[in-house]
Amino acid sequence: MVETTAGTPGRDRILDEAAALFLEHGYEATSVRRIAEAVGIQAASIYHHFHSKDDLLEVILRRGLDVMTAAFSDASAATLAAPPETRLAAHVRAHLAALYENGPYTATHVTTFRTAPQSVRATIVPQRDAYEVLWTSLLEDLVTSGLLAPDTAVGPARLMLLGGMNASVEWFDPHLGSLDDLSELITRQILYGLSNPMKDRQLP
């Protein structure tokens, strides 16, 4: 158990500020002292809530995954009887909403996980794997439904889809663009690529 004190406003404020700082400056460049200054407390006070900066990062990464998993589950429940195109669009929109409409936790997860300390990554991997299994199952269902080609390589397709959505945090500004438009763009690219859907073309 990484947290030493649970559920207090001070703890949540530390997490909020740390997640925002990790997202803006990176994990390595963000010191415990800098987090404490943002919260308005002494650095030593952080250790009343967390054993270390690594433990603080672990909680943030888990919160990000919790948000994404809940969003996926909500999209699944809302589209049980929907056409496959609607199911795909709903899950893409849900993942993007988790990235952009739920504070810095999910965005911090996708930008920080690969550079997190190995010990932190090791504790998070099972939860990440479980989330990716949800997407694998969805894509397999879409292949079975006929929406996706029968020879679709589901594993690489999942990596490309999640990678594309997650990479959008590097260039998409939700204050300047519409999340619905981004969701539609990504869904269309999965279904049709960049080719003219009115043309019957084959790869050379």
Keywords:
mainly alpha, single chain, Tetracycline Repressor, domain 2, 204 residues
What are the secondary-structure elements, in order, as H or E? Answer: HHHHHHHHH
Radius of gyration (Å) = 19 Å
Helix/strand class: mainly alpha
- Count of helical regions: 9
Broad CATH class of the domain at 60-192: Mainly Alpha
End-to-end C-alpha gap: 55 Å
Could you give me the name of the CATH homologous superfamily of the domain at 60-192? Tetracycline Repressor, domain 2
Label the overall shape. elongated
CATH topology of the domain at 60-192: Tetracycline Repressor, domain 2
Number of separate strands:
0
Describe the fold and architecture:
With 204 residues, the chain is mostly helical. It has a domain at 60-192: Tetracycline Repressor, domain 2. Helix content is 67%, strand content 0%. It contains 9 helices and no strands. It has helices spanning 9-25, 32-39, 43-46, 53-78, 84-100, 104-112, 118-145, 154-167, 179-192. The radius of gyration is 19 Å and the shape is elongated. Residues 1-9 have low confidence and may be disordered.
What topology emerges from the helices and strands here?
Blueprint: H1 9-25, H2 32-39, H3 43-46, H4 53-78, H5 84-100, H6 104-112, H7 118-145, H8 154-167, H9 179-192
Helix pairs in contact: 1-2, 1-6, 4-5, 4-6, 4-7, 5-9, 7-8
Could you write a compact summary of the structure shown?
With 204 residues, the protein is an all-alpha fold. The protein is 67% helix and 0% strand.
